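User: Teach me something about this protein's shape.
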Amino acid sequence: MERFVLTDAQWARMEPHCLGKAIDPGRSGGDNRLFVEAVLWIVRTGSPWRDLPAFFGKWNSVFTRYRGWVKADVFIRLFEACSDAPDMEYAMVDATIVKVHRHGQGAKGGPQSQAIGRSKGGMTTKILALTDALGNLVRFVLLPGQRFDTVGVEPLIAGLSFDALIADKAFDSNVIIADLNERGAKVVISQHSRRAKPLPLDAEMYKWRHLIENFFCKLKEFKRIAMRADKTDQSFSAIIHLAAAVINSR
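Assistant: First, the predicted structure itself:
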């Protein structure tokens, strides 16, 4: 294997937050960097775990270790370690829909127990994200594909402080606008033509919304995200956090 993802600078930020470091008791796994690269290979290519190249080790051992890291929220910590303090001059929200591969279906409890729903594209999951003014991911939530985008906004903005919120007309909601007004945040949301009294829109600031669309384009370069193959939201969220850690630290 010659093509890896992580730079030395990125790994320096991740390494202290990994499980199985030399200083940890009961150390497991001999090479954390190779293991993270193995997971990234799966996420980049969208391949089944059984197709993992032998260079990375036995696929079932790597997968078992991956599941342990998912349950321990390690990938969330890697994302936080690779993300600088967000620039909250303004925030942006948007959503993208990904199809769910048949390998990503069949979780215990059925699709209704996970963020998987049926929409025009079949079985889908919606990734609703909030980025900072630079287009770097701050938070995201998963929703079934048929759910309205506005449903996930409250948990995204809870506890955050920002000067303005930029979004397209899918987020033109009186509830959201009232919340922003109460916060004292500027509303930069494109509006539906049916709105009786259109609100002023800062057209120049709204142009920056392309940054969150650029983020989704980068995220979907990781094929296991562009086509969901993970049965559980916990596992799918973990690979989004890992991919975003790489994107945010480029």
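Now, about its shape. DSSP finds ten helices and seven strands in the chain. The longest helix spans residues 233-248. If you'd like, I can walk through any region in more detail.
User: That's plenty for now, thanks!
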